[in-house]
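Data deposition worksheet. Section B asks for the primary sequence of the deposited chain exactly as it was used as input, without tags or linkers unless they were present during the calculation. Section C holds the resulting structure in token form. Section D is free text for depositor observations; keep each observation to a single sentence. Incomplete worksheets are returned to the depositor.
Section A, Depositor: J.P.
Section B:
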Amino acid sequence: MRTQTLDRSRGGMWPWLGQRVTAVVIIVTIMVHLVLTHFFAIGELSFENIADRLASTAVLVNDVLLLVAVVYHALNGVRMVAYDYAFRGQGARRGFDAFLWVAGLLAVVYGIWALWVWVS
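Section C:
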């Protein structure tokens, strides 16, 4: 049973492990985000002081880590659902994986750019 679950035709072991690891990273970084935002906040939570908050290295690193983990987790979930219902051929799967990697990298770069505007 275990080899069937982690079989390459069903997604593979590394994406399976990545899904579990990013789930834990998301839970931890969301908790850290909430603590940094609501308990160690610099003034009132408002649009005006977002730059002050993101100037803190801890907040910025936590938000970037959260961004990367959420994008990987979400796109890997889409990949697994698509593998369950479509993309039976190896070529189609590789093309879909390439599309998801490009979409994920674009999302992460855009997210970091959006955060960077507040910092600089």
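Section D:
The helical segments are 2-5, 13-38, 50-54, 57-85, 90-119.
The chain has a mean pLDDT of 85.
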